[in-house]
Amino acid sequence: MTTGPKFTPQEINTLSHDDFVQVLSSVFEGPPWIVAEAWSSRPFLSLDHLHASLCAVMYAAPIEQQVALIRAHPDLVGRAALAGTLSPSSTNEQAAAGLDRLTAAEIETFSHYNQAYRERFGFPFVICARENKKENILAGFEQRLHNSRSQEITLALGEVAKICLLRLRDLIRS
Fold first, then answer.
1. Enzyme catalytic residues
2. What pLDDT, on a 0 to 100 scale, did the predictor assign at position 1?
Protein backbone atom coordinates (compact mmCIF):
# COMPACT_ATOMS: atom_id res chain seq x y z
CA MET A 1 0.00 0.00 0.00
CA THR A 2 2.88 2.38 0.45
CA THR A 3 4.17 2.15 -3.13
CA GLY A 4 1.48 4.50 -4.43
CA PRO A 5 -1.05 4.10 -7.20
CA LYS A 6 0.17 2.06 -10.13
CA PHE A 7 -2.30 2.78 -12.95
CA THR A 8 -4.10 5.70 -14.52
CA PRO A 9 -7.78 5.32 -15.44
CA GLN A 10 -6.70 5.38 -19.10
CA GLU A 11 -4.37 2.43 -18.51
CA ILE A 12 -7.16 0.55 -16.73
CA ASN A 13 -9.40 1.11 -19.77
CA THR A 14 -6.89 -0.57 -22.09
CA LEU A 15 -6.57 -3.79 -20.07
CA SER A 16 -7.96 -7.02 -21.45
CA HIS A 17 -10.80 -8.57 -19.48
CA ASP A 18 -8.45 -11.06 -17.80
CA ASP A 19 -5.85 -8.41 -16.95
CA PHE A 20 -8.56 -6.04 -15.66
CA VAL A 21 -9.88 -8.76 -13.36
CA GLN A 22 -6.38 -9.65 -12.18
CA VAL A 23 -5.39 -6.03 -11.48
CA LEU A 24 -8.61 -5.11 -9.67
CA SER A 25 -9.50 -8.42 -8.01
CA SER A 26 -8.21 -7.19 -4.64
CA VAL A 27 -10.68 -4.30 -4.35
CA PHE A 28 -13.37 -6.73 -3.13
CA GLU A 29 -13.02 -9.77 -0.90
CA GLY A 30 -13.90 -13.12 -2.42
CA PRO A 31 -14.36 -14.10 -6.06
CA PRO A 32 -13.92 -11.22 -8.54
CA TRP A 33 -17.41 -11.42 -10.10
CA ILE A 34 -18.08 -7.70 -9.58
CA VAL A 35 -14.85 -6.67 -11.30
CA ALA A 36 -15.43 -9.15 -14.12
CA GLU A 37 -18.90 -7.78 -14.79
CA ALA A 38 -17.88 -4.11 -14.51
CA TRP A 39 -15.24 -4.48 -17.26
CA SER A 40 -17.95 -4.12 -19.91
CA SER A 41 -18.76 -0.63 -18.60
CA ARG A 42 -15.47 0.77 -19.96
CA PRO A 43 -14.30 3.35 -20.67
CA PHE A 44 -14.06 4.71 -17.15
CA LEU A 45 -13.64 8.47 -17.17
CA SER A 46 -12.12 8.62 -13.68
CA LEU A 47 -11.45 6.64 -10.55
CA ASP A 48 -14.84 7.79 -9.23
CA HIS A 49 -16.56 6.56 -12.40
CA LEU A 50 -14.86 3.17 -12.05
CA HIS A 51 -15.91 3.02 -8.39
CA ALA A 52 -19.50 3.91 -9.26
CA SER A 53 -19.56 1.21 -11.96
CA LEU A 54 -18.23 -1.42 -9.57
CA CYS A 55 -20.75 -0.43 -6.90
CA ALA A 56 -23.59 -0.47 -9.43
CA VAL A 57 -22.78 -4.12 -10.17
CA MET A 58 -22.64 -4.91 -6.45
CA TYR A 59 -25.95 -3.19 -5.66
CA ALA A 60 -27.73 -4.72 -8.68
CA ALA A 61 -26.74 -8.28 -7.72
CA PRO A 62 -29.30 -10.66 -6.23
CA ILE A 63 -29.44 -10.63 -2.44
CA GLU A 64 -27.82 -14.08 -2.24
CA GLN A 65 -24.79 -12.80 -4.14
CA GLN A 66 -24.61 -9.70 -1.97
CA VAL A 67 -24.67 -11.81 1.19
CA ALA A 68 -21.96 -14.08 -0.28
CA LEU A 69 -19.84 -10.96 -0.85
CA ILE A 70 -20.35 -9.89 2.76
CA ARG A 71 -19.52 -13.42 3.96
CA ALA A 72 -16.22 -13.27 2.06
CA HIS A 73 -15.01 -10.63 4.52
CA PRO A 74 -12.93 -11.80 7.46
CA ASP A 75 -13.96 -11.26 11.06
CA LEU A 76 -12.22 -8.30 12.65
CA VAL A 77 -9.54 -9.71 14.94
CA GLY A 78 -10.82 -13.15 13.95
CA ARG A 79 -9.02 -16.45 13.47
CA ALA A 80 -7.46 -15.39 10.15
CA ALA A 81 -6.10 -12.18 11.67
CA LEU A 82 -4.74 -13.95 14.72
CA ALA A 83 -3.16 -16.65 12.53
CA GLY A 84 -1.68 -14.08 10.12
CA THR A 85 -3.57 -15.45 7.10
CA LEU A 86 -5.56 -12.37 6.07
CA SER A 87 -5.10 -10.86 2.61
CA PRO A 88 -2.46 -8.12 2.55
CA SER A 89 -5.21 -5.49 2.13
CA SER A 90 -7.19 -6.77 5.12
CA THR A 91 -4.04 -7.04 7.24
CA ASN A 92 -3.10 -3.41 6.51
CA GLU A 93 -6.66 -2.19 7.06
CA GLN A 94 -7.02 -3.89 10.42
CA ALA A 95 -3.59 -2.58 11.44
CA ALA A 96 -4.62 0.97 10.44
CA ALA A 97 -7.46 0.69 12.96
CA GLY A 98 -5.06 -0.51 15.65
CA LEU A 99 -6.52 -4.01 15.66
CA ASP A 100 -3.08 -5.60 15.53
CA ARG A 101 -2.18 -4.11 18.93
CA LEU A 102 -4.92 -5.37 21.24
CA THR A 103 -4.75 -6.74 24.75
CA ALA A 104 -5.99 -10.25 25.48
CA ALA A 105 -9.16 -8.75 26.98
CA GLU A 106 -9.79 -6.67 23.85
CA ILE A 107 -9.31 -9.72 21.63
CA GLU A 108 -11.87 -11.56 23.78
CA THR A 109 -14.30 -8.64 23.40
CA PHE A 110 -13.94 -8.71 19.61
CA SER A 111 -14.40 -12.49 19.64
CA HIS A 112 -17.60 -12.12 21.66
CA TYR A 113 -19.00 -9.46 19.30
CA ASN A 114 -17.97 -11.41 16.18
CA GLN A 115 -19.82 -14.48 17.44
CA ALA A 116 -22.93 -12.57 18.52
CA TYR A 117 -23.07 -10.70 15.22
CA ARG A 118 -22.61 -13.85 13.09
CA GLU A 119 -25.28 -15.69 15.10
CA ARG A 120 -27.74 -12.82 14.62
CA PHE A 121 -27.14 -12.03 10.94
CA GLY A 122 -25.38 -15.03 9.37
CA PHE A 123 -22.40 -13.06 8.09
CA PRO A 124 -19.45 -11.13 9.55
CA PHE A 125 -19.56 -7.55 10.77
CA VAL A 126 -18.18 -5.35 7.98
CA ILE A 127 -16.88 -1.86 8.67
CA CYS A 128 -14.29 0.18 6.83
CA ALA A 129 -11.45 -0.31 9.32
CA ARG A 130 -9.27 2.33 7.66
CA GLU A 131 -11.88 4.95 8.56
CA ASN A 132 -12.24 3.80 12.18
CA LYS A 133 -10.31 2.97 15.32
CA LYS A 134 -11.01 0.09 17.70
CA GLU A 135 -13.28 2.16 19.97
CA ASN A 136 -15.51 3.18 17.04
CA ILE A 137 -15.58 -0.37 15.74
CA LEU A 138 -16.66 -1.75 19.12
CA ALA A 139 -19.33 0.96 19.36
CA GLY A 140 -20.45 -0.02 15.85
CA PHE A 141 -20.91 -3.63 16.95
CA GLU A 142 -23.04 -2.50 19.91
CA GLN A 143 -25.23 -0.22 17.79
CA ARG A 144 -25.61 -2.47 14.77
CA LEU A 145 -26.50 -5.61 16.72
CA HIS A 146 -29.92 -3.98 17.24
CA ASN A 147 -30.60 -3.60 13.50
CA SER A 148 -32.66 -5.86 11.28
CA ARG A 149 -30.90 -8.24 8.89
CA SER A 150 -31.93 -6.15 5.88
CA GLN A 151 -30.59 -2.99 7.54
CA GLU A 152 -27.30 -4.78 8.18
CA ILE A 153 -27.02 -6.00 4.60
CA THR A 154 -27.50 -2.41 3.41
CA LEU A 155 -24.98 -1.05 5.93
CA ALA A 156 -22.43 -3.79 5.17
CA LEU A 157 -22.66 -3.13 1.42
CA GLY A 158 -22.09 0.57 2.10
CA GLU A 159 -18.97 -0.32 4.08
CA VAL A 160 -17.82 -2.64 1.26
CA ALA A 161 -18.20 0.32 -1.13
CA LYS A 162 -15.99 2.47 1.15
CA ILE A 163 -13.37 -0.29 1.36
CA CYS A 164 -13.45 -0.65 -2.42
CA LEU A 165 -12.89 3.09 -2.95
CA LEU A 166 -9.88 3.15 -0.63
CA ARG A 167 -8.40 0.07 -2.29
CA LEU A 168 -8.95 1.63 -5.74
CA ARG A 169 -7.11 4.74 -4.57
CA ASP A 170 -4.19 2.48 -3.64
CA LEU A 171 -4.13 1.09 -7.21
CA ILE A 172 -5.12 3.98 -9.47
CA ARG A 173 -3.81 7.51 -9.91
CA SER A 174 -6.65 9.96 -10.45
1. 73
2. 41
